[in-house]
């Protein structure tokens, strides 16, 4: 690309970022009527190919110069290209050595796991999906043969689990159910020193142990109700959308849900101890705070949603209805359909369907927001709470230094976080870093 093209891209991207940040700041302080018309996204489609080719070529040549100063990143400007090349960067794990594991491809797609170290990214052979315990000590690596749990990443093996057959419990009476889903999990969470594992999939949420698999969802009542709704010639298919789960850091509590359930919490003996009505239409996500004192539940409707928080001490015996005004519940955030979270002391960070990271306290007070773009699909935070890694459906893997001295000029948001680098995992091309 030539100097004129570079200058045009830089000027337009930075002008848009400055304008949109000013627009949002005014809207939040004075109201959206005072903010006026939202700034228009610059027309830069004619520069997309030369800009991306320049960045890709510089990376391939081993050029470590930070190109983001002369060629700032703009998700909005790249949308016409992303419609053809983007792919989901799902489960994201930041290892203690600073390298990153990322599942490339959505759960229902043929995909695999990339290991990103420095400026290198390579596929991990035969590993389909990954997971980690809440205390960061145990890792799960899933292959066609089963799920292996190790102490540390690829360390000493502590357990190995077979995939559920789909015939456990009541399902054994159904017969003929398609179990091809088994090797397409949404989440894998080891707990109890790696001796048990929470497997979340669209066809069931299970706790795996040496003694076998126990189904938490769908419940027996859900299955019977769904069977009763079938036509006489219709086959039963145990598929439930929006499955999700979380395990508390002390392994005492398991929070699960799906589109048709309430927010449910089980104890470590797998007894149901709480059923909490969502504050939007469909339960969508759950997580525990890093100290295990709070649990957050998100429910969604289309691309919007509401997140509520509950003190873990209040969970036993809790039974509330949809949209209940209960003093034990705190509305943490309204507006976001949540796909990923990370926690650090006093702060919950959510990633939503509109490409935003939003941070808040457990009292519901907003802290900051940062825009990455597309739908956020994976997130992890370092043990010291200073580095955040975020994946999105645009094929992004962003590495962000939190609480920096300044934000990059192209960033959209109100926080002083510094995007260190952004990887691009796009279809039909080698990964590259910008």
Q: List segments where confidence is low: pLDDT < 50 over at least 5 consecutive residues.
A: none
Number of domains: 1
> What is the molecular shape?
globular
Strand content: 35-45%
Number of helices: 5
CATH topology: Methylamine Dehydrogenase, Chain H
CATH superfamily: YVTN repeat-like/Quinoprotein amine dehydrogenase
Characterize the biggest β-sheet.
5 strands, antiparallel
Which key phrases capture this entry?
alpha+beta; 16% helix; WD40 repeat domain-containing protein; Quino_amine_DH_bsu; 5 helices; single chain; 5-stranded antiparallel β-sheet; WD40/YVTN_repeat-like_dom_sf; 434 residues; Methylamine Dehydrogenase, Chain H; 30 strands; globular; 38% strand
Descriptive account of the structure:
The chain has five helices and 30 strands. With 434 residues, the chain is α+β, with helices and mostly antiparallel strands. It has one domain (88-433): 7 Propeller (Methylamine Dehydrogenase, Chain H). The strands form seven sheets. A five-stranded antiparallel sheet has the order 21-22-23-24-28. Strands 25-26-27-29-30 form a five-stranded antiparallel sheet.
Can you describe this structure in just a few lines?
This protein has 434 residues and is of the alpha+beta class. The chain has helices at 3-30, 32-35, 45-60, 75-85, 220-228; strands at 89-94, 100-104, 112-117, 120-123, 129-132, 138-143, 146-151, 156-161, 187-191, 196-201, 204-209, 212-217, 244-247, 253-257, 263-267, 272-276, 282-288, 294-301, 304-311, 329-334, 338-344, 347-352, 356-360, 366-371, 376-381, 387-392, 396-401, 412-413, 418-424, 432-433.
């Amino acid at each position: 690309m030539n100097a004129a093209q570079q200058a045009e891209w830089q000027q337009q991207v930075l002008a848009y970022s400055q304008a949109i940040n000013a627009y949002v700041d005014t809207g939040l302080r004075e109201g959206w009527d005072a903010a006026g018309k939202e700034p228009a996204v610059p027309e830069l489609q004619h520069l997309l190919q030369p800009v991306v080719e320049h960045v890709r070529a510089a990376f391939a040549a081993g050029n470590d110069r930070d190109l983001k100063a002369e060629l700032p990143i703009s998700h909005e400007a790249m949308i016409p290209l992303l419609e053809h090349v983007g792919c989901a960067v799902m489960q994201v794990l930041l290892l203690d050595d600073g390298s990153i594991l990322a599942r490339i491809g959505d759960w229902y797609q043929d995909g695999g796991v990339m290991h990103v170290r420095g400026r290198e990214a390579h596929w991990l052979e035969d590993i389909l999906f990954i997971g980690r315990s809440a205390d960061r000590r145990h890792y799960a690596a899933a292959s066609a043969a089963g799920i292996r749990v190790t102490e540390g990443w690829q360390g000493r093996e502590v357990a190995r689990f077979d995939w559920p057959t789909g015939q456990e419990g009541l399902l054994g009476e159904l017969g003929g159910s398609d179990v091809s889903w088994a090797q397409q999990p949404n989440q894998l969470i080891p707990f109890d020193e790696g001796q048990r594992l929470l497997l979340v999939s669209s066809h069931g949420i299970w706790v795996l142990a040496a003694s076998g698999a126990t189904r938490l969802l769908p419940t027996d009542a859900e299955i019977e109700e769904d069977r009763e709704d079938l036509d006489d010639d219709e086959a039963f298919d145990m598929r439930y959308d929006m499955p999700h789960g979380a395990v508390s850091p002390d392994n005492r509590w398991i929070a699960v849900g799906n589109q048709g359930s309430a927010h449910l919490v089980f104890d470590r003996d797998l007894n149901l101890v709480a059923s909490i009505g969502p504050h939007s239409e469909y339960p969508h996500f759950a997580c525990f705070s890093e100290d295990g004192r709070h649990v957050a539940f998100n429910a969604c409707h289309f691309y919007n949603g509401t997140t509520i928080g509950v003190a873990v001490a209040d969970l036993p015996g809790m039974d509330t209805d949809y949209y209940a005004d209960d003093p034990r519940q705190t509305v943490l955030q309204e507006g976001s359909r949540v796909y990923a979270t990370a926690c650090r002391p006093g702060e919950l960070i959510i990633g939503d369907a509109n490409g935003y990271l939003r941070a808040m306290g457990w009292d519901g007070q907003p802290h900051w927001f940062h825009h990455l773009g597309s739908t956020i699909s994976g997130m992890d935070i370092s043990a010291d709470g200073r580095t955040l890694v975020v994946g999105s459906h645009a094929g992004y893997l962003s590495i962000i230094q939190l609480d920096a001295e300044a934000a990059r000029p192209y960033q959209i948001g109100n926080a002083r976080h510094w995007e260190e680098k952004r990887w691009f995992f796009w279809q039909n091309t080698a990964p590259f870093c910008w």
